[in-house]
Amino acid sequence: MKAVIPVTCQKGEYLISARFGRSSLFAVTEDETRTYYLLKSPVKSKSAETGKKVLETLIKNEKVDTIIAFEIGLYVQQYAAKTGMRIILISDKYGRLDDLMDLMGMKKSYQIL
Amino acid sequence: MSRPVHDRKIQAPPRLKGFMPVGRYTEAETEIIFYFEEYEAIRLLDYENLTQAEAAGYMEISRPTLTRVYESARNKIARAFTESLPIKIEGGKGIYSNLWYICSDCESKFNTIQDVSVTSCPLCKGSRIDKLNIATV
Protein backbone atom coordinates (compact mmCIF):
# COMPACT_ATOMS: atom_id res chain seq x y z
CA MET A 1 0.00 0.00 0.00
CA LYS A 2 1.29 3.45 -0.93
CA ALA A 3 -0.99 6.06 0.58
CA VAL A 4 -1.39 9.80 0.18
CA ILE A 5 -2.60 11.99 3.05
CA PRO A 6 -3.55 15.71 2.74
CA VAL A 7 -1.55 17.73 5.28
CA THR A 8 -1.48 21.31 6.47
CA CYS A 9 1.19 23.03 8.55
CA GLN A 10 0.04 25.23 11.45
CA LYS A 11 2.61 26.84 13.75
CA GLY A 12 5.20 24.25 12.82
CA GLU A 13 2.89 21.32 13.46
CA TYR A 14 1.68 19.03 10.69
CA LEU A 15 -2.08 18.39 10.84
CA ILE A 16 -4.35 16.31 8.61
CA SER A 17 -6.08 18.67 6.21
CA ALA A 18 -9.88 18.57 6.00
CA ARG A 19 -9.90 19.33 2.27
CA PHE A 20 -7.95 17.15 -0.14
CA GLY A 21 -7.77 19.45 -3.17
CA ARG A 22 -7.02 22.61 -1.17
CA SER A 23 -4.25 20.99 0.83
CA SER A 24 -0.83 22.60 0.45
CA LEU A 25 1.14 19.50 1.47
CA PHE A 26 0.79 15.75 1.07
CA ALA A 27 2.35 12.95 3.07
CA VAL A 28 3.13 9.78 1.11
CA THR A 29 3.57 6.56 3.08
CA GLU A 30 5.45 3.48 1.89
CA ASP A 31 4.49 0.17 3.46
CA GLU A 32 7.65 -1.68 2.44
CA THR A 33 10.08 0.68 4.17
CA ARG A 34 7.58 1.82 6.87
CA THR A 35 8.48 5.43 6.08
CA TYR A 36 6.75 8.55 4.85
CA TYR A 37 7.78 11.76 3.18
CA LEU A 38 6.16 15.14 2.53
CA LEU A 39 5.47 16.76 -0.82
CA LYS A 40 4.22 20.19 -1.83
CA SER A 41 0.90 20.12 -3.69
CA PRO A 42 1.71 19.42 -7.36
CA VAL A 43 -1.18 21.64 -8.52
CA LYS A 44 -0.94 25.38 -7.90
CA SER A 45 -4.40 26.51 -9.03
CA LYS A 46 -7.39 26.15 -6.73
CA SER A 47 -10.03 25.91 -9.44
CA ALA A 48 -12.81 23.32 -9.68
CA GLU A 49 -11.71 19.69 -9.67
CA THR A 50 -8.30 20.58 -8.17
CA GLY A 51 -8.46 17.46 -6.01
CA LYS A 52 -8.87 15.27 -9.07
CA LYS A 53 -5.89 16.95 -10.79
CA VAL A 54 -3.78 16.50 -7.62
CA LEU A 55 -4.69 12.84 -7.42
CA GLU A 56 -3.99 12.33 -11.11
CA THR A 57 -0.48 13.76 -10.68
CA LEU A 58 0.23 11.80 -7.49
CA ILE A 59 -0.82 8.52 -9.13
CA LYS A 60 1.44 9.25 -12.10
CA ASN A 61 4.48 10.54 -10.18
CA GLU A 62 4.31 8.76 -6.82
CA LYS A 63 2.32 5.62 -7.80
CA VAL A 64 -0.05 6.00 -4.83
CA ASP A 65 -2.90 3.48 -4.55
CA THR A 66 -4.69 4.65 -1.37
CA ILE A 67 -6.14 7.93 -0.09
CA ILE A 68 -6.27 8.55 3.66
CA ALA A 69 -8.36 11.57 4.70
CA PHE A 70 -11.14 12.79 6.98
CA GLU A 71 -13.41 13.12 3.96
CA ILE A 72 -13.06 13.57 0.23
CA GLY A 73 -15.07 15.37 -2.40
CA LEU A 74 -17.17 13.78 -5.08
CA TYR A 75 -14.72 14.29 -7.98
CA VAL A 76 -11.79 12.78 -6.06
CA GLN A 77 -14.00 9.92 -4.95
CA GLN A 78 -15.18 9.21 -8.49
CA TYR A 79 -11.64 9.36 -9.86
CA ALA A 80 -10.38 7.07 -7.09
CA ALA A 81 -13.13 4.56 -7.88
CA LYS A 82 -12.30 4.72 -11.58
CA THR A 83 -8.61 4.04 -10.97
CA GLY A 84 -9.24 1.31 -8.37
CA MET A 85 -7.83 3.23 -5.41
CA ARG A 86 -8.75 2.43 -1.85
CA ILE A 87 -10.20 5.19 0.33
CA ILE A 88 -9.64 5.24 4.08
CA LEU A 89 -11.66 7.78 6.08
CA ILE A 90 -9.98 8.33 9.43
CA SER A 91 -11.50 9.27 12.76
CA ASP A 92 -11.23 12.85 13.99
CA LYS A 93 -9.04 11.69 16.89
CA TYR A 94 -6.09 11.48 14.45
CA GLY A 95 -5.88 15.18 13.74
CA ARG A 96 -2.06 15.33 13.99
CA LEU A 97 0.08 13.68 11.32
CA ASP A 98 2.41 12.33 14.02
CA ASP A 99 -0.49 10.50 15.71
CA LEU A 100 -1.59 8.91 12.45
CA MET A 101 1.97 7.91 11.56
CA ASP A 102 2.41 6.36 15.02
CA LEU A 103 -0.78 4.35 14.47
CA MET A 104 0.51 3.14 11.10
CA GLY A 105 4.02 2.53 12.47
CA MET A 106 5.65 4.92 9.99
CA LYS A 107 8.83 6.93 10.43
CA LYS A 108 9.70 10.10 8.57
CA SER A 109 12.32 9.48 5.86
CA TYR A 110 12.97 12.81 4.17
CA GLN A 111 11.15 15.97 3.28
CA ILE A 112 10.71 17.66 -0.08
CA LEU A 113 9.59 21.25 0.30
CA MET B 1 -50.39 -1.89 0.28
CA SER B 2 -48.04 0.97 -0.54
CA ARG B 3 -45.14 0.51 -2.93
CA PRO B 4 -41.83 -0.33 -1.16
CA VAL B 5 -39.24 2.46 -1.00
CA HIS B 6 -36.16 1.86 -3.18
CA ASP B 7 -32.69 2.02 -1.69
CA ARG B 8 -30.85 5.30 -2.19
CA LYS B 9 -27.13 5.15 -3.03
CA ILE B 10 -24.70 6.91 -0.67
CA GLN B 11 -21.15 7.51 -1.93
CA ALA B 12 -19.30 7.42 1.39
CA PRO B 13 -20.00 7.45 5.15
CA PRO B 14 -20.44 10.94 6.67
CA ARG B 15 -17.63 12.20 8.88
CA LEU B 16 -19.90 12.95 11.85
CA LYS B 17 -22.80 11.32 13.67
CA GLY B 18 -24.66 14.61 14.01
CA PHE B 19 -24.63 18.21 15.23
CA MET B 20 -25.35 19.93 18.55
CA PRO B 21 -26.58 23.52 19.02
CA VAL B 22 -24.11 25.76 20.84
CA GLY B 23 -25.09 27.38 24.14
CA ARG B 24 -28.25 25.44 24.85
CA TYR B 25 -28.89 22.30 26.88
CA THR B 26 -31.01 19.81 24.94
CA GLU B 27 -32.60 16.50 25.78
CA ALA B 28 -31.63 13.54 23.64
CA GLU B 29 -35.32 12.82 22.91
CA THR B 30 -35.75 16.14 21.12
CA GLU B 31 -33.10 15.46 18.49
CA ILE B 32 -33.97 15.49 14.82
CA ILE B 33 -33.26 12.26 12.94
CA PHE B 34 -31.61 13.14 9.65
CA TYR B 35 -31.65 10.20 7.24
CA PHE B 36 -28.52 9.24 5.33
CA GLU B 37 -30.19 9.93 2.00
CA GLU B 38 -31.10 13.43 3.24
CA TYR B 39 -27.47 14.05 4.19
CA GLU B 40 -26.39 12.80 0.74
CA ALA B 41 -28.95 15.00 -1.04
CA ILE B 42 -27.71 18.11 0.81
CA ARG B 43 -24.08 17.15 0.14
CA LEU B 44 -24.57 16.58 -3.58
CA LEU B 45 -26.87 19.54 -4.27
CA ASP B 46 -25.65 22.25 -1.89
CA TYR B 47 -22.01 21.28 -1.25
CA GLU B 48 -20.96 19.71 -4.56
CA ASN B 49 -23.38 22.02 -6.48
CA LEU B 50 -24.68 19.28 -8.76
CA THR B 51 -27.92 19.66 -10.65
CA GLN B 52 -30.90 17.67 -9.38
CA ALA B 53 -30.65 15.37 -12.41
CA GLU B 54 -26.94 14.68 -11.73
CA ALA B 55 -27.51 14.10 -8.01
CA ALA B 56 -30.46 11.81 -8.73
CA GLY B 57 -28.17 9.82 -11.04
CA TYR B 58 -25.57 9.36 -8.30
CA MET B 59 -28.22 8.28 -5.81
CA GLU B 60 -29.96 6.08 -8.40
CA ILE B 61 -33.39 7.57 -7.75
CA SER B 62 -35.74 9.63 -9.90
CA ARG B 63 -35.47 13.40 -9.90
CA PRO B 64 -38.92 13.90 -8.27
CA THR B 65 -37.89 11.49 -5.49
CA LEU B 66 -34.67 13.45 -4.98
CA THR B 67 -36.72 16.65 -4.77
CA ARG B 68 -38.84 15.12 -2.01
CA VAL B 69 -35.77 13.90 -0.09
CA TYR B 70 -34.15 17.33 -0.47
CA GLU B 71 -37.30 19.13 0.71
CA SER B 72 -37.47 16.90 3.75
CA ALA B 73 -33.78 17.55 4.50
CA ARG B 74 -34.23 21.33 4.20
CA ASN B 75 -37.29 21.25 6.48
CA LYS B 76 -35.41 19.29 9.13
CA ILE B 77 -32.42 21.65 9.01
CA ALA B 78 -34.73 24.67 9.26
CA ARG B 79 -36.51 23.15 12.26
CA ALA B 80 -33.22 22.27 13.97
CA PHE B 81 -31.85 25.80 13.43
CA THR B 82 -35.02 27.60 14.50
CA GLU B 83 -35.87 25.43 17.48
CA SER B 84 -32.16 24.87 18.34
CA LEU B 85 -32.44 21.09 18.27
CA PRO B 86 -29.63 18.59 17.84
CA ILE B 87 -29.39 16.65 14.57
CA LYS B 88 -28.54 12.96 14.53
CA ILE B 89 -27.61 11.30 11.22
CA GLU B 90 -29.08 7.80 11.13
CA GLY B 91 -31.61 5.52 9.47
CA GLY B 92 -33.46 5.92 6.22
CA LYS B 93 -33.11 3.85 3.09
CA GLY B 94 -29.51 4.60 2.19
CA ILE B 95 -27.04 1.95 1.08
CA TYR B 96 -23.41 2.50 0.12
CA SER B 97 -22.50 2.32 -3.53
CA ASN B 98 -19.34 0.34 -2.60
CA LEU B 99 -18.66 -2.11 0.18
CA TRP B 100 -17.37 -0.18 3.21
CA TYR B 101 -15.84 -1.52 6.42
CA ILE B 102 -15.29 0.02 9.84
CA CYS B 103 -12.42 -0.82 12.19
CA SER B 104 -13.45 -1.01 15.85
CA ASP B 105 -9.89 -0.31 17.00
CA CYS B 106 -8.97 2.89 15.14
CA GLU B 107 -12.55 3.80 14.01
CA SER B 108 -11.47 4.31 10.41
CA LYS B 109 -13.78 3.43 7.54
CA PHE B 110 -12.41 1.99 4.33
CA ASN B 111 -13.69 0.58 1.06
CA THR B 112 -12.55 -2.47 -0.84
CA ILE B 113 -10.65 -2.68 -4.08
CA GLN B 114 -12.24 -4.93 -6.72
CA ASP B 115 -14.12 -7.15 -4.25
CA VAL B 116 -10.95 -8.33 -2.49
CA SER B 117 -11.91 -9.90 0.86
CA VAL B 118 -10.75 -7.88 3.86
CA THR B 119 -9.45 -9.51 7.05
CA SER B 120 -7.67 -6.63 8.76
CA CYS B 121 -7.68 -2.84 8.92
CA PRO B 122 -5.22 -1.38 6.37
CA LEU B 123 -4.40 1.44 8.80
CA CYS B 124 -3.83 -0.16 12.22
CA LYS B 125 -3.79 -3.83 11.10
CA GLY B 126 -6.49 -4.59 13.69
CA SER B 127 -8.76 -7.56 13.00
CA ARG B 128 -11.95 -6.19 14.60
CA ILE B 129 -13.62 -5.02 11.41
CA ASP B 130 -17.28 -4.95 10.42
CA LYS B 131 -19.08 -4.48 7.13
CA LEU B 132 -21.11 -1.31 6.59
CA ASN B 133 -23.78 -2.61 4.20
CA ILE B 134 -26.57 -0.24 5.15
CA ALA B 135 -25.59 3.38 5.54
CA THR B 136 -24.30 3.98 9.05
CA VAL B 137 -21.79 6.47 10.44
Structure summarized in a few sentences:
The complex is a heterodimer of chains A (113) and B (137). Chain A has helices at residues 50-62, 74-82, 97-104, and strands at residues 2-10, 13-16, 25-30, 35-40, 66-69, 86-89, 107-111.
- For the record, the count of structural domains of chain A works out to 1
Give, in order, the helices and strands of chain A: EEEEHEHEHE
Radius of gyration of chain B: 17 Å
- The sequence of SSEs of chain B as H and E is EEEHHHEEEE
What is the multimeric organization of the chains shown? heterodimer
CATH fold assignment of the largest domain in chain B: Arc Repressor Mutant, subunit A
List the helices and strands and how they pair.
The complex is a heterodimer of chains A (113) and B (137).
Chain A: E1 2-10, E2 13-16, E3 25-30, E4 35-40, H1 50-62, E5 66-69, H2 74-82, E6 86-89, H3 97-104, E7 107-111
Helix pairs in contact in A: 1-2
Chain B: E1 8-10, E2 18-19, E3 32-34, H1 36-47, H2 52-59, H3 63-82, E4 87-89, E5 94-103, E6 109-111, E7 129-134
Parallel strand pairs in B: 1-5, 3-4
Antiparallel strand pairs in B: 2-4, 5-6, 5-7
What do you see in this structure?
The complex is a heterodimer of chains A (113) and B (137). Chain A is an alpha/beta fold and 113 residues long. Chain A has one domain (2-111): Dinitrogenase iron-molybdenum cofactor biosynthesis domain (Nucleotidyltransferase, domain 5), CATH 3.30.420.130. Helix content of chain A is 27%, strand content 34%. Chain A has helices at 50-62, 74-82, 97-104, and strands spanning 2-10, 13-16, 25-30, 35-40, 66-69, 86-89, 107-111. In chain A, strands 1, 2, 3, 4, 5, 6 and 7 form a 7-stranded mixed β-sheet that branches. In chain A, a hairpin with a 2-residue loop joins strand 1 (2-10) and strand 2 (13-16). The longest helix of chain A is centred in the middle third of the chain and has 13 residues, at 50-62. Chain A is globular and about 30 Å long. The two termini of chain A are 23 Å apart. The mean pLDDT of chain A is 89. By secondary structure, chain B is an alpha/beta fold. Chain B has 2 domains: 8-94, Orthogonal Bundle (Arc Repressor Mutant, subunit A), CATH 1.10.10; 96-134, no CATH class. Chain B contains 3 helices and 7 strands. Chain B has helices spanning 36-47, 52-59, 63-82; strands spanning 8-10, 18-19, 32-34, 87-89, 94-103, 109-111, 129-134. In chain B, the strands form 2 sheets. In chain B, strands 1, 5, 6 and 7 form a 4-stranded mixed β-sheet that branches. In chain B, strand 5 (94-103) and strand 6 form a beta hairpin. In chain B, 31% of the residues are buried. The model of chain B has no long low-confidence stretch (mean pLDDT 88). Chain A binds chain B through residues 1, 65-66, 68, 70-74, 77, 81, 84-94, 103-104, and chain B through 11-15, 44, 48, 50, 58, 98, 106-114, 122-124.
